[in-house]
């Protein structure tokens, strides 16, 4: 939504400089190698900095840059300030750089980490389904809403990003340097570790008995 419909909104408002169209058509922000540098860097630093730090940094910067983008969009729409139109494009790139700090390299791996084994496949399926619904919403709802409300519609996403940051602050669990079993204990309690250990002992005993029977 950020890139495609911001450019659509700027074009509708008359912002049609050659530089704007060159950036729009030849270097879409979400495909820019320079932006994905931050995703690669975060992937290498995740065990040093931790998941929580990266997610909070990413969400905080996304909220900041998107708020700045909304302000610049409003300035260009209401007052026709050319510098504000160029600033919107700059903040789009900064927004995607902030997104790539955590959500590109960690969103899938973190989902896998926090789900216990018996729920992992179902949880990941629900995650993919929600992502698909968000894509459908972005494709069909955002253009109509932006056309009807203009820059004011960006405030909806400013509020959403702020809520997302608050949610991550209070509920995101750090999984750095923890095994999957230790992570399960955070969500399910110490009983989960005992259950996992008991299942492991039972499985080892069953395998031992099977091997003994086959040898006999």
From TrEMBL:
Swiss-Prot/TrEMBL keywords: Membrane, Transmembrane, Transmembrane helix
Subcellular localization: Membrane
UniProt-listed Gene3D superfamilies: MFS general substrate transporter like domains
SUPFAM superfamilies in alphabetical order: MFS general substrate transporter
Annotated TM spans: 53-76, 88-112, 124-141, 153-173
GO cellular component: membrane
Gene Ontology molecular function: carbohydrate:proton symporter activity
Membrane topology designation: Multi-pass membrane protein
Entries under PROSITE patterns matching the protein: MFS
Pfam family membership, one: Sugar_tr
Residue span, Major facilitator superfamily (MFS) profile domain: 1-176
InterPro entries: MFS_dom, MFS_sugar_transport-like, MFS_Sugar_Transporters, MFS_trans_sf
Protein family membership: Belongs to the major facilitator superfamily. Sugar transporter (TC 2.A.1.1) family.
Protein name from the UniProt record: Major facilitator superfamily (MFS) profile domain-containing protein
Provenance organism: Scleroderma citrinum Foug A
